[in-house]
Structure formats: structure tokens, C-alpha cells
Design brief:
This protein has a domain at 16-155 and 241-317: 3-Layer(aba) Sandwich (Rossmann fold). It is 37% helix and 16% strand. The protein has 14 helices and 8 strands. The protein has helices at residues 56-62, 87-101, 115-125, 144-149, 165-172, 174-180, 184-195, 208-215, 221-227, 229-234, 269-276, 293-296, 298-308, 310-317; strands at 16-21, 25-32, 37-42, 64-69, 107-112, 130-136, 254-259, 280-286. Helix 11 links the parallel strand 7 (254-259) and strand 8 (280-286). Helix 2 (87-101) packs across helix 3 and helix 7 (184-195) crosses helix 8 (208-215). It is globular and about 55 Å long. It starts with 15 loop residues before the first strand and ends with a helix.
């Protein structure tokens, strides 16, 4: 079972491990259910590994070895000396953690927001490593010609989206924005808005106590600034370690979910993912759920992953 709705989350609920990856950066991560089938859960923005608090126990009980990192520069992970905070860098870190440090030849991967492109890249960059994936509420791959052929209308430019001021400022005006957010309280308030009045989540999905739990890691100015790096790369304001594998379709079997009360992800997301994923399961729309599907519809996601991977779990137990 996931945590009871709106109970006070316990920051110390799970043991935090640390490992250096690629000789470059130390990642903090959780590892529960050791010996089960490897399941990598990748957070996005404005998130840390804490966004998965309602999933970890249930998924470990189902038979997964649940691996939940903080991305470089986020949460309890270290800042990156090389300055790379792009999708490819995150993806290569994830492979190094799961494959090189923990010794797994393959895994199932789950991600939303930034975590979605990270695991999409991971499955293409390292063929055979991601055997199945679940992606929700994120940016679809950049294959606009295929979407046009399928009759899917284009997205509005970010400049024309009423909810995209955060995207523009974080990507193009990050230093000035950070200067405005000059206290821990102001930095946390900036992040809290994504869980509240900016309507990323369905109304009422987070209590104030839960918002405080999610925003606490972003009180640190250096961590908040690092978290905007991925927006800067998308805006061509920061160098990338490598181009993300987001310009092609993926053959990885992909379960696509969409929390339809998300006001920052375009409603074309499910249709686009059905084109991008040649082995698509779904897409399935989840009512009364927004951007943070793993928290807002935790029991739905937990049960879905259990049955999506039932055969893998049986083999692991055998």
C-alpha cells in the first residue's frame, strides 16, 4: 500500500545510499527490495526522489528492487563539477548507477517530467538495458514530421503559452531570477507554486505539509540553480554533455499514462507518445490527476506497474 493520503511524509523513511558515478559526481539514492527485479524511478522538476515516497514500499513489496536516485545537482546528490545538467548527462549517470555500481544488466524504468526524456534516452543510448518503461506527463520526443503525418496539431510556442513564464525565466534568465529569490523562503515559494496555484497538479492533491516536504530541498540556492540547467539547455543557453536521443522513435515497450488535469503538458502528449513509441501500451488517461501522477495517483501507478511487469517479477522470484 502507498502512504495514506495527506499523512505527514517522513524524510527518514528510507535509507539513503551514496555512490560516485562515472568518476564525476556523487549521487544519493534509495534502494529497497534488494534482490527483486530492478526498477529505476527517475524524478523530474521541481522534484527530488521524495516525489516517489508513495510508491517505494508498495513496489518493493510487489517484488521490485526499487532504485530511486536524486539526479545530479538535485536533492541530496552533489553538484556536478563539469556543469552538465542535461538529459544525456542524467541518462549516463543513471546507467552508471544501475549497471556499473549496482551490477544490473537491465532494468524497468519509470519517469515523468524531466525523468521521462531521461529514461527515453536511456533505452536508446544503451540498447537492451531498459527492457520496459513507463512514461507520463512530460515532453514528447521531437519528431514533429511524424506527428504531422499522424494529424496531430503542433504545440504552441512557449512564448504563447499562458503557463510558461517559469520555463522562459528559468531557461533564459536564470541568474536574474535566482537573484530575486534571495532567501530560502522565496526559493521554496517559487517551487511551491508548481504544486499549488500554477495548477500543475489537480486541485487538492497536496496539503501544505506535503508541499513543504517537496520544497525543502530547494531552499538551497545552488540546488535550485542547478535544477534549471535542463531548461537552459532546452533554451540553448547552456552546453550539453551530449545530444539527447529525443529525435527518434523508440522500440522499448512503453506504458504511456497521462494525468489529464496537468496545465503545463500539452493535451497532445498521449497521441504523440503513441507515435513515438513503436511498442506503445496505451496511452491511458488518469482522471482527477495532474502532473505529479506518481504522487496523485500512487495506487494506480503501483498496481499498473505490478501487472505491467508481472512476468518479470515471476521470473525473478523463480
Amino acid at each position: 500500500m502507498s502512504a495514506s493520503p495527506h499523512s505527514r511524509p517522513d524524510p527518514g523513511a528510507f535509507e539513503i545510499h551514496r555512490a560516485e558515478v562515472r568518476g564525476r559526481v556523487e549521487l544519493a539514492y534509495l534502494r529497497e527490495g534488494v534482490g527483486g527485479h530492478p526498477l529505476l524511478l527517475v524524478h523530474g522538476y521541481p522534484e527530488t526522489k521524495r516525489i516517489w515516497w508513495r510508491n517505494i514500499t508498495a513496489l518493493a513489496a510487489a517484488g521490485f528492487e526499487v532504485i530511486v536516485p536524486d539526479l545530479r545537482g538535485h536533492g541530496y546528490s552533489a553538484l556536478a563539477d563539469d556543469g552538465f545538467y542535461d538529459v544525456a548527462a542524467f541518462s549516463m549517470d543513471m546507467h552508471a548507477l544501475v549497471h556499473d555500481v549496482l551490477g544490473h544488466a537491465s532494468c524497468v524504468a519509470v519517469g515523468g517530467d524531466v525523468g521521462g526524456p531521461v529514461i527515453y534516452d536511456l533505452g536508446l543510448r544503451y540498447p537492451g538495458f531498459v527492457v520496459r518503461q513507463c512514461i507520463f506527463n512530460t515532453v514528447a520526443p521531437l519528431i514533429d514530421d511524424l506527428y504531422e503525418e499522424a494529424g496531430i496539431p503542433p504545440d504552441l510556442a512557449y512564448e504563447d503559452r499562458p503557463t510558461a513564464d517559469y520555463y522562459l525565466r528559468q531557461g533564459r534568465d536564470a541568474d536574474a531570477l535566482l537573484a530575486e529569490l534571495d532567501t530560502p523562503e522565496r526559493r521554496r515559494a517559487w517551487v511551491a507554486a508548481m504544486y499549488g496555484h500554477r495548477l500543475w497538479a489537480a486541485p487538492g492533491s497536496f496539503t501544505q505539509v506535503e508541499i513543504d516536504f517537496m520544497t525543502e530541498p530547494y531552499a538551497d540556492a545552488s540546488k535550485l540553480r542547478a535544477s534549471w540547467g535542463v531548461y537552459e539547455t532546452a533554451s540553448l543557453q547552456r552546453e550539453m554533455e551530449d545530444m539527447p536521443r529525443m529525435l527518434e522513435q523508440t522500440p522499448v515497450p512503453t506504458l504511456v499514462l497521462f494525468g489529464c488535469e496537468d496545465h503545463v503538458i500539452a493535451p497532445q502528449f498521449p497521441a504523440r507518445m503513441a507515435v513515438a513509441c513503436t511498442e506503445c501500451i496505451g496511452p491511458f488517461t488518469i482522471d482527477n490527476t495532474g502532473h505529479f501522477l506518481q504522487w496523485e495517483a500512487a495506487d494506480v501507478l503501483n498496481q499498473t506497474l505490478r501487472y505491467f511487469c508481472a512476468d518479470l517479477l515471476t521470473r525473478t522470484r523463480g
